[in-house]
Structures are given as C-alpha cells and as structure tokens.
C-alpha cells in the first residue's frame, strides 16, 4: 500500500503525519522510523518521484526550489544535549506500589552452606540437572523441597518396601497429580508474581530539574503541563527473582501545580475522560513481574530512560520497590481436568495432602513427585510452627477477608461458619458443619483441646477458679503457594478471644518472615 497506492487520498494524510513525526516527535527512535517510512513513500522513479518529492516538501513547509535532500538533513539535538543523567530524578518521577506492604521487610534471611566448597546452599539451588554429579545430589538432601535428578534417584540404595493404607495412597496420588502441573523453571517459565505499581510525574520539580527559569514565569502562570514520552523502566534485583522484564509507557502527563490548577489550565494535551478518578489521570499503571527462585523479600531497583518534550533523553535511578513475603503468595494450581464445581473439594483435598506430607511423622517423606516436563522430581520435607494471636474472632475474620480470602479453602465449625458466611466475601470453599472435636480425631481441623491460656489476674491469684478454656468456634484452613514450588499452610483454631495458628511449610526459611506478617495482619 505504501509503495503502490500513491493516488490514494490516504497518501497525503499519511505523508503529512510521518513528516510531522520526523520533525517534532521527542523520541529519536520513533523519529527515525517515521523517516524510513516516508522514504518508502517517495522511492519511485521518474516524473512521479519529482511530483511526490515536491509534495513532501510542501508537507514539510519547504519551498519547492529547495533541494529534496533537505528533508533528510533534519538535524537532531547534539549528543551532549539529548542525553543527560540526573541523580535526583526520584524527586520528580515517582514509582509507587498500588497496595502498600503490611510488613516493610528491612532484612532478608541468607544462609551459608557452612562447607569448605563455594557451592550455594542446597535449598537455593533446588533444581538440578539429571547429569549432576553424585556429590551434588547428596548435598541436595537437606533442602526443604528438593529436586532430585532421575540418575541420582536410581543410584540411591534400595530401601525396604513399605505398606501403605488407602489414605496414604490417596494422598500420594493427589500430590503426584498436583506436582505434575508445577513448571520447572529450568526449562520453561516458572511461577510468576505480579506487583502492581503506578508512575507519576511531579510537574514543579521536573521543570526545575530541567533548568527552566520559573522566576520570570511563575509555575502558576505556566499554561502547559510537562510530559514525558516513550518511557522505559528497567528492573534489576540482587534477590533471586530471575530475569525481570522491562516495562514501557508511551506517554505520561505531569500532575497539576496545585489542587485546582489542572482545572484552570488551558492544556494543550488533555487526559481522556474514562470514568477514572481525578488523580488517576496523571498516573500510569506499571506491572513488575518476578519469577522467584526462592520465596524471599527483597528490593527491586528501578532505572528509567525517557524523553522530554524538547527531545532530550533523560535517564536515572528511581526509588526501589520493596518486595514483601506477602507478594509471594499465590493460589494453588488447579489441573485443567477439574470441573468448576469440583475445585473447592480439590483444594481442600490438596490442603489435607500437603498438611500430612509436611508433618514430622509423615509417611510420605521418602516419596518423590515429578514436576511438569518430567525432567525433575521434588521431595517434601516439612516444618511446623505455632503462633498465638490475642484477637477477637470477629476481628480475625475481617482481617482474613481483607487479605487472605482467596487462599481460604475450608471452614469448619458451625459457629465460625455463621460468622464467615455473614460477611459474604469468602465463597466457593468447603463449609464443614459436621466436624466435631469429640468425634473426629483424625480430621485435619482437629482442635479438640483448644488453645492454652495463661492467666495472670488478681482473682486467679486469690484462688478463684477461672475458665481457662474459651468457646471453640471452629477452624479456618488456608493454602498458599510460594514460588517456585513451595507451600504455606495455616490452620487457624478460632476461639472467642484468641486464635491459635498452626503453621506447616515445606520451605522452612519462610517461617522467619511469617511471624511478623501475622502480627502486622491481625494485631496492628
């Protein structure tokens, strides 16, 4: 169409648009691309070429007597003018999280291998190739959820055969089916977490940073807001988050100079009305996608490259984005062959299987499970912990609904079910009203003893009998996936005035962050 349809009326409009882009668009790369396309339009021999060249000159505002090559001599700013690094760029361009962290983790657990070799700890390596040496296979035995190569598994000595009952066999089948859908990040994209942020441009600081004299024309009298074009955000981190893709923003308009300034200004570029809030018009959505190798907090460093309206290329470092342990929380993978109405039961069965596998007396400790692609296999070694929360049941349910509703897989106990169902937020889970502590001692939600309370009031010191036990309302079961293949399980035994949280996980370093998270979630 560009080469053969010069008689079309589209040619004139397209040529005018490309010529204008070549001269005035602030992004030099876009300007060069427009110049290439315009050359395609005028690369025709003979008389038609001269006519089109004259037309192109008219479009550019050049007299017909001028040489046609003058179009190609459009000068770009000098290198010293078009490229500049600013150290204080973070004072005027702000990248902020949409959802603030509950816990701003200022530290990260880093473990040494405590060996003479320089190899990384086994729980950090996790995935090994099938051709790994035998000594590397042996070093991986201490990992929480290990990836064992097939050759290493074959070379291991034979273990005595075990007798399994139907319950253990069902648990193993559930885990084998589940792990077969967890991607092996060595050979395919792994589980990703997404951090939603917003980018905004502070007009007053940005104008001062560019060196524009505002004494002669105060900011209140400036009738055009600044903007940045063709922005590229590049991310990096010292934490094990894998390669982080960059993010591009075509255009961002600066914020107004005052509370009502944007309403009084006669803008040359006006944000489109789309029903969003007033402050959202001057913000660009940014998504940071991480592919963690280890579920750990960290900081993502942000580098920006952008273009000012005068064609100047600006680059610099922005304020880093803090990554918390709650950013690692993902929902469980559901196999595609599970029907929609069977998903709640599947998640509860998966919780039960993982809870059993992460127990210290588990009969599944020596089992291995193939990952997606069948090139690596995982073994589960669980750890347990407890946390007592001094919080009323109603407050605990409300906090759970705000932050952990999508991870709840089941609620037991009729009193607690009435409270949770009354909120109407937690849905599509298993409501178990038949669980009874006095009759079902083998249930996952076994809370027959209730939390232990220590009383220190004066009445007890005088010999009065105090009711140490509180009414047991029920139990909330929560299943959280930690990339790349770990899990965090909560069994919350809810009473009137307190809750005992039983925790099991197959990645024991994550317990270092869970205590602070639970306190910030329920006690702050």
From TrEMBL:
Residues 1-19 form the signal peptide. The keyword Signal applies. It holds the Pfam family AP5B1_C. GO terms for cellular component: AP-type membrane coat adaptor complex. GO terms for biological process: endosomal transport. Residues 475-520 form the AP5B1 C-terminal domain. InterPro entries: AP5B1, AP5B1_C. It comes from the Eukaryota. Keywords: Signal. This is AP5B1 C-terminal domain-containing protein. It comes from Acacia crassicarpa.
